[in-house]
Amino acid sequence: MSPTAYPLTWPHNIPRTKNKAASKFKTGLPAALKNVRSSLQLFATDSGKKVEGITISSNVTLGVDRPDDPGVAVWFTWDGMSVCIAVDRYPKVEDNVQAIYHIIDGRRTELRHGGLHIVKATFTGLLALPAPDHRSWREVLGFGGLDPVNPDWIADAYRKLARERHPDQPGGSHDAMAELNRARADALREIGS
Question: Please, are residues 162 and 180 in contact by the beta-carbon 8 Å criterion?
Answer without folding.
Answer: yes
